[in-house]
Amino acid sequence: MPSKPVKKKKAKAVKKSGSGKRAAPPSGPKSKTKRLSKNASRAEPVAVDFHPALRLKDFSESVIREQTRLAALHGAVNLAQGFPDFPCEPVLKELAAGAVAHDFNQYSVTWGMPALRAAIAKKAGAYNGITADPDRNVTVTCGATEAMICAFMSTLDPGKEVIFFQPFYENYHPDAYLCGAKPVYVTLREPDWSIDEKELARAFNRRTAAIVINTPHNPTGKVFTRAELEIIAKHCSRWGTLVFADEIYEHILYDGATHVSPASVPGLEDLTVTISSASKTYGITGWRVGWAIAPARITEGIRKVHDFMTVCAATPLQEAVRGALGLGPEFYRDLADHYRRRRDFLIGGLEAAGFPCHVPKGAYYVMADVSHLVKGSGRFRDDTELARYLVSEVKVAAVPGASFYRGGHDKTISGTHKLRFCFCKKEETLALALSRLGAFKGLNRK
Ligand SMILES: Cc1ncc(COP(=O)(O)O)c(C=O)c1O
């Protein structure tokens, strides 16, 4: 076995350095190695040959969070990152303060506090049509973000493929690369972000281990219909493909759209990891409480990764989210209404400022068309250059459309003629952004 000689060599090197002769040189260029003196206190520091781990090579930092940093740097209105700039409901603050005061202050059971898991399972039955046992199927995580990466890490081996609908939420891509899986893209077709069934069928093969379904969808606001989910279910059943269902906007729906959880569709019950979180529903993105609901055999792996990655989500905030899950139906009605008003206000203003918009059916983002400013207009090279200009000069931050695309086989698909704006902001914040974009339109005409 090849490991034996390596072990012997190591032992010898340790012995040498222990006897005060010469320590084994660090790996790296010869010129950087230093001769160590017998007197350790006079030894010069050893040059460290550092390079980031190879698994980081295929992705860069989050464009959304980069835009947020640029917004802060330039004093711009931040319509890039999806978090509210208004206070959360007073009842939520009372729940969190009460949990700390009542001493929910130590590690919880790693899978999540039993009372919170019971509340999540109850809600999954009542709202999502999913039967879940709190002890076997529910894991509480640090947000949907951690639930998703736990799902990836616990089920995908290097070389496996995972299907993404593009445009897609930018976190999924690094999740795939971190576990050595290969992303495969299926494009949602404009103007209604529909699925091309032939393209979908082509994406599946014997290496396909998972497909990510985000409904309601960031960034398009698409709400997947039951009929679409049934088509996906047919392929998943055929190829034994898991579904990672990101349902974080499940309560933010407009114009009579209804949320269908993939796990409630026949054929997907035993294949689906249902992921959600308190972040968007309760406007508390900083609390970092989310969950994964999955068949017991998948839950075991998710819990294993979660335990060693974070131990548990913040205990007092788990207790507060347990209380939040008990809020009545009027809370959810008001929530959708609150965002629908903002959606209509932002779209009206963007269109007046010359940005035609797709009207979302769910979530709180708008994809605006900026073709007239980028494509052969001579004004801006692409969406990224335009977004940089808007944040630094116009003082409005949005996300370049290309960051939600990878193209795959079809190089004409890139998102470079789009910007994403979010509307989970105070009305005065949206009004300020729109007045700046209106002035930009004026300048742009000259
Ligand atoms: C689709 C989607 N999933 C997950 C998240 C992050 O969720 P969490 O705050 O629960 O980690 C976001 C945040 O914007 C999102 O848009």
Quick recap:
This protein has 446 residues and is of the alpha/beta class. It has 15 helices and 13 strands.
**Could you tell me the strand content as a percent range?**
5-15%
Q: Taking strands numbered 1, 2, ... along the chain, how are they ordered across the largest sheet?
A: 2-9-8-7-6-3-4-5
So, CATH architecture of the largest domain? 3-Layer(aba) Sandwich
CATH class of the largest domain: Alpha Beta
Which small compounds were modeled alongside the protein?
Answer: pyridoxal-5'-phosphate
How far apart lie the N and C ends? 74 Å
Order of helical and strand elements:
HHEHHEHEHEEHEHEEHEHHHEHHEEEH
* Rg over C-alpha atoms, rounded to the nearest angstrom: 25 Å
The CATH H-level homologous superfamily of the largest domain:
Type I PLP-dependent aspartate aminotransferase-like (Major domain)
Structural class: alpha/beta
The total number of structural domains is 2
What about the largest sheet?
Answer: 8 strands, mixed
Q: What integer is the average pLDDT?
A: 89
* Global outline: globular
How many beta-strand runs? Answer: 13
Q: Which fold name is given in CATH as the topology of the largest domain?
A: Aspartate Aminotransferase, domain 2
State the helical fraction.
Answer: 40-55%
Number of helices: 15
